[in-house]
TrEMBL record:
<keyword id="KW-1278">Translocase</keyword>
<keyword id="KW-0813">Transport</keyword>
<dbReference type="InterPro" id="IPR003439">
    <property type="entry name" value="ABC_transporter-like_ATP-bd"/>
</dbReference>
<dbReference type="InterPro" id="IPR003593">
    <property type="entry name" value="AAA+_ATPase"/>
</dbReference>
<dbReference type="InterPro" id="IPR027417">
    <property type="entry name" value="P-loop_NTPase"/>
</dbReference>
<keyword id="KW-0547">Nucleotide-binding</keyword>
<dbReference type="GO" id="GO:0005524">
    <property type="term" value="F:ATP binding"/>
</dbReference>
<dbReference type="InterPro" id="IPR017871">
    <property type="entry name" value="ABC_transporter-like_CS"/>
</dbReference>
<feature type="domain" description="ABC transporter">
    <location>
        <begin position="12"/>
        <end position="256"/>
    </location>
</feature>
<dbReference type="Pfam" id="PF00005">
    <property type="entry name" value="ABC_tran"/>
</dbReference>
<dbReference type="InterPro" id="IPR050086">
    <property type="entry name" value="MetN_ABC_transporter-like"/>
</dbReference>
<keyword id="KW-0472">Membrane</keyword>
<dbReference type="InterPro" id="IPR012693">
    <property type="entry name" value="ABC_transpr_PhnC"/>
</dbReference>
<protein>
    <submittedName>
        <fullName>Phosphonate ABC transporter ATP-binding protein</fullName>
    </submittedName>
</protein>
<keyword id="KW-0067">ATP-binding</keyword>
<keyword id="KW-1003">Cell membrane</keyword>
């Protein structure tokens, strides 16, 4: 018998979520998903399965067609702009191609995670509270970038940029991290370091995360739970050790899923979509 007291409380509840794009593509079909506080979930599935759409429906970068998304009990799908801005503060997002402002310093990029709190004019004049600056320093130390605070973002390696992206998301003091292909632009060793860092930070902070990731080996190694999407439908939901050949075939079908077990290598530059406009929308600037 399951003792109710041992179940983590729910931070996110998605129910009967559907997304049909104006092109007619049905990207999500009646998706039900519950994420407990502190739970780190990897979202896997073939290209076009709906992973990015699901993550973006949660913070409404994509507007769902029908269904419910509740963050800590608050229905997100029908919030007006001011309430949506408040809800988005509680969801940090980490992007594949980092989405840093290249000409700003590491510290300024980190502090931009507070934009949803400090207000536009204050942030425009770079007047962040000293407590925010101190918090950013603490986080930069934690991710190993303390001596880079004044470097411009465009002087950093990919792994360093992603660490700044992680700090920026954590500066929001979120309850949930939405992570979109965090390692697709990184080499295998840096990919493992970044995934380990995300898992450690979630554990330290009791923070839940949904990580959209192509690399099944990384998902198995670092996530506590794996959700498999195929053609917009959840076809697997379980612990990494139950992701066996039958489950992989259910997710990837006839595709040669063994190819997904290793690191697929870097994604070509032209496959990146610029996430900077998405960061601006999340901060309420666009
Ligand atoms: N902006 C859009 N307009 C129209 N169709 C879209 C749009 N974005 C995604 N789609 C379609 O929705 C489906 C799901 O796409 P999505 O990007 O969510 O999948 P994914 O699993 O994240 O794929 P990948 O791993 O290749 O990024 C696909 O059929 C895709 O073509």
């Amino acid at each position: 018998m399951i003792e109710l007291g041992t179940l983590p409380s729910t931070v996110l509840e998605v129910a009967r979520l559907n997304k049909r794009y104006p092109t007619g593509d049905l990207a999500l079909r009646d998706v039900d998903l519950r994420i407990g506080r502190g739970e780190v979930v990897a979202l896997i599935g073939p290209s076009g399965a709906g992973k990015s759409t699901l993550i973006r429906c949660v913070n409404r970068l994509v507007q769902p067609t029908s269904g419910s998304v509740r963050l800590d009990g608050t229905e997100v799908t029908d919030l007006g702009s001011a309430s949506l801005r408040r809800a988005r503060r509680r969801m940090g997002m980490i992007f594949q191609e980092y989405a840093l402002i290249e000409r700003l310093t590491v510290m300024e990029n980190a502090l931009s995670g507070r934009l949803g709190y400090v207000g536009f004019w204050r942030s425009w004049f770079r007047r962040f509270p000293t407590t925010d600056v101190a918090e950013a320093f603490t986080l930069l130390i934690r991710v190993g970038l303390s001596d880079m605070a004044n470097k411009r973002a465009d002087a950093l390696s990919g792994g360093q940029r992603q660490r700044v992206g992680i700090v920026r998301a954590l500066m929001q003091r979120p309850e949930l991290l939405l992570v979109d292909e965090p390692t697709a632009s990184l080499d295998p060793k840096t990919s493992r370091q970044i995934m380990r860092l995300i898992l450690e930070l979630c554990t330290e902070r009791g923070l839940a995360a949904i990580i959209n990731i192509h690399d099944v080996a990384l998902a198995r190694q670092f996530a506590q739970r794996i959700v498999g999407l195929r053609a917009g439908v959840i076809v697997f939901d379980g612990p990494p050790n139950s992701l066996d050949a039958a489950a992989l075939t259910a997710i990837y079908g006839d595709e040669d899923w063994t190819a997904t077990l290793g690191h697929g290598g870097k994604v070509a530059e032209d496959e990146h979509r610029s996430a900077v406009p998405e960061v601006e929308r999340l901060a309420g600037l666009a």
